[in-house]
């Protein structure tokens, strides 16, 4: 007789609608009830002052778990450009300043690259973590590509309109959700993380 698996309630520690859409797509049919920070009240202030993507992801997950006592997933991700010595890196979301829009961040990136020769090689990096109050599960993913000078596409967010993944002639923002979740840094990280969560739960 097959053991009935109870639905796992997990908070995804983000208010980014693009991230929520991507990860919700990945967990479809996986016995996980995903709650985002858009679904709950009194969200605490989170200062992401880690020096790595993983450190920032762990900071978010622990703060949210400590507040609500519900297992929490979080991620930190960004783009690393070779010619900028890895920048924007952990500052990707605020590259043009605190509360900068995607458009402002994209404009700053293009400004910083305008005197440098093409190709502008880069990679998206994601660190995803899960915290249940006792220990962390961690995973990571990346996708390599290049930055172009003119934004293209409306399906993505962040730096997606400027990024062409290796092996493609379209930007990440021109891919549909299924195509993006085959190759994206976030999809790679969260696919691994979700499998780790399920494995851990089944061992209890």
User: Residue-averaged pLDDT, rounded?
Assistant: 91
Spans of at least 5 consecutive residues whose pLDDT stays below 50 are none
Classified by CATH, the class is: Alpha Beta
Q: How many structural domains?
A: 1
* Largest beta-sheet characterization: 6 strands, mixed
Please tell me about this protein's structure.
By secondary structure, this protein is α/β, with parallel strands linked by helices. It has a single domain, classed as Maf protein (Alpha-Beta Complex), CATH 3.90.950. Helices cover 32% and strands 23% of the residues. It has five helices and six strands, in the order βαβαβαβββαα. It has helices spanning 17-27, 53-68, 102-113, 177-183, 185-203, and strands at 8-12, 32-36, 72-81, 120-131, 136-147, 163-165. The chain has a six-stranded mixed β-sheet with strand order 2-1-3-4-5-6. β4 and β5 (136-147) form a beta hairpin. The longest helix is centred in the C-terminal third of the chain and has 19 residues, at 185-203.
């Amino acid at each position: 007789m097959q053991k009935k698996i109870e639905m796992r309630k997990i908070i995804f520690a983000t208010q980014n609608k693009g991230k929520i859409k991507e990860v919700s797509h990945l967990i479809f049919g996986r016995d996980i009830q995903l709650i985002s920070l858009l679904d709950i009240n009194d969200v605490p202030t989170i200062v992401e002052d880690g020096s790595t993507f993983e450190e920032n992801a762990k900071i978010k997950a622990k703060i949210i778990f400590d507040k609500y006592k519900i297992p929490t997933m979080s991620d930190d991700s960004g783009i690393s450009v070779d010619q900028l010595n890895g920048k924007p890196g952990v500052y990707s979301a605020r590259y043009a300043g605190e509360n900068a829009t995607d458009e402002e961040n994209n404009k700053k990136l293009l400004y910083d690259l305008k005197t440098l020769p093409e190709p502008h090689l880069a990679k998206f990096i994601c660190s995803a973590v899960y915290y249940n109050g006792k220990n962390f599960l961690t995973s990571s993913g990346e996708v390599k590509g290049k930055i172009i000078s003119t934004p293209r596409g409306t399906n993505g967010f962040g730096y997606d309109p400027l990024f062409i993944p290796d092996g493609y002639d379209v930007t990440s923002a021109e891919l549909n959700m299924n195509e993006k979740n085959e190759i994206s840094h976030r999809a790679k990280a969260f696919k691994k993380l979700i499998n780790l969560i399920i494995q851990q739960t089944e061992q209890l």
